[in-house]
Amino acid sequence: MGVLDKAAAVLDVIGRDSASPSEIAAATGIPRNTVARLVRAMIRLGLAARQEDGQIAPGPRIARPGATTDEVPTAGSGIEKLAALRDATGASAVRLVRRRGPADTARVCIAEVLDLHAAGRSQLGVPVPFADDPVTRTFLAWQYSTDRAGPAPHRTAPYTADMLAQTRRRGWAQGFSGPTYRLATVAAPVLDRSKELVGVLVISGPVTALTETPGRVHGRTLLKVASASEVISECLYRSGTPVSRLHLLTAKRRGTV
């Protein structure tokens, strides 16, 4: 049995339901050590994903077999809003993220639209710990506005109440990263009808595309998209959806060759 045959056998097993490496080995007849190596490679390629309980499930590049139609983003869903936002702002990546983890100290990308040049940097379904960045600052700013206890302390995100209040007044957060701080990021809250935070909408790209003042230039556009009913619904619906059922859309920017 070749490598592709083994990978296909693994996908057949986890396509029916998530499974442990031992269960995959038993179901396929592939040695346990070989399954472990194969699963690691499949996770790296986005063909499989390791869930919080250690079970292996289909990865973001695989649409879960047997999924009903209401589990797949349809035409007119929030993903189209993200694609239009990418084209309007010149961002390399547009992402919709939610909280993740028992202590809400991490976030996970639930939908993304990437420019051709960012196609190799997918974050879909990958839990990312809170850090000192615009996304975390946005999460904490709007959590603080509705949580009497205030924001939980984060050593990597030491924001004061005044800093978070300033972010709320502005409506968005911006930041720069990379070796020469040439990658710009702008984040805006996605709020439900009760003004509760349900997610964060993020655009990122080179400063040459988003400018030296990305929040001032694109913040209003970002907020408009974040308030769209399709984007809010995407966050609300995805709140209980396993990472294995998330879908990735990677497309070239309009007008490129």
Written description of the protein model:
- This is IclR family transcriptional regulator.
- Residues 41-238 form the IclR-ED domain.
- GO terms for molecular function: DNA binding; DNA-binding transcription factor activity.
- Keywords: DNA-binding, Transcription, Transcription regulation.
- Residues 1-60 form the HTH iclR-type domain.
- The protein is α+β, with helices and mostly antiparallel strands.
- It folds into two domains: 3-58, Winged helix-like DNA-binding domain superfamily/Winged helix DNA-binding domain (Arc Repressor Mutant, subunit A); 69-250, Beta-Lactamase.
- The chain has nine helices and nine strands.
- It has helices at residues 3-16, 21-28, 32-44, 78-89, 134-146, 161-170, 207-210, 214-226, 229-238; strands at 48-50, 56-58, 93-100, 106-114, 127-129, 173-177, 183-191, 197-206, 249-250.
- The strands form two sheets. Strands 3, 4, 5, 6, 7, 8 and 9 form a seven-stranded mixed beta sheet that branches.
- Strand 6 and strand 7 (183-191) form a beta hairpin.
- Helix 1 crosses helix 3 (32-44).
- The radius of gyration is 19 Å and the shape is elongated.
Spell out the helices and strands N to C.
Answer: HHHEEHEEEHHEEEHHHE
Low-confidence stretches: 63-76, 147-153, 239-257
Overall mean pLDDT score?
78
Number of strands: 9
Terminal Cα span:
40 Å
Q: Tell me the CATH architecture of the largest domain.
A: 2-Layer Sandwich
Alpha-beta content class? alpha+beta
* Percent helix range: 25-40%
Over all CA atoms, what is the radius of gyration?
A: 19 Å
Reported for the largest beta sheet, the result is:
7 strands, mixed
CATH superfamily of the largest domain: GAF domain
**How does the overall form come out from the CA principal axes?**
elongated
Count helical runs: 9
Number of domains as seen in the coordinates: 2
| CATH uppermost class of the largest domain | Alpha Beta
Name the beta content range: 15-25%
The CATH topology of the largest domain = Beta-Lactamase
